[in-house]
Amino acid sequence: MRITVNNEARDTQADTVEALVEETLGEVPEAGTAVAVDGEVVPRSQWASTKLVDGSTVDVLTAVQGG
Questions:
Q1: Is 67 part of a structural domain of the chain?
Q2: 4 with 10: CB under 8 angstroms?
Q3: Domain coverage including residue 7
Q4: CB–CB of 47/30 below 8 Å?
Q5: SS3 18
Q6: Which residue spans traverse the membrane (predicted)?
Q7: Total domain count for the chain?
Q8: Model pTM?
């Protein structure tokens, strides 16, 4: 399917938010990552059950430390 991730079009076989995050980031820490699908924040507890469809727009954000 074709979706947009962080403003970039991409083809993916990932059918859930969880699968897409793992495909995009690899192993994800318990805290510090947020996902929105079509402008709606998806709680981490719902990543595995939130399905993606062709044309979805996904924003994946990660917190970074710095000084």
A1: no
A2: yes
A3: 2-62
A4: no
A5: helix
A6: none
A7: 1
A8: 0.86
Please indicate, yes or no, if residue 41 is contained in any of the structural domains: yes
Placement of tokens 């970074």 in the chain: 64
Q: Which two tokens stand for residue 31?
A: 């805290």
In a domain, 29, yes or no: yes
Q: Has residue 19 been placed in a domain?
A: yes
Residue 32 makes CB contacts below 8 A (sequence gap 6+) with 62, 63
Cβ contacts of residue 29 below 8 Å, gap of 6+? none
What's the CATH code of the domain at 6? 3.10.20.30
40: which residues sit within 8 A by CB, 6+ positions away?
A: none
Which DSSP letter does residue 67 get? -
Of 54, 60, 63, 57, residue with least CA distance to 18: 60
pLDDT per residue as tens digits for the range 36-64 = 999 999 999 999 999 999 999 999 988 87
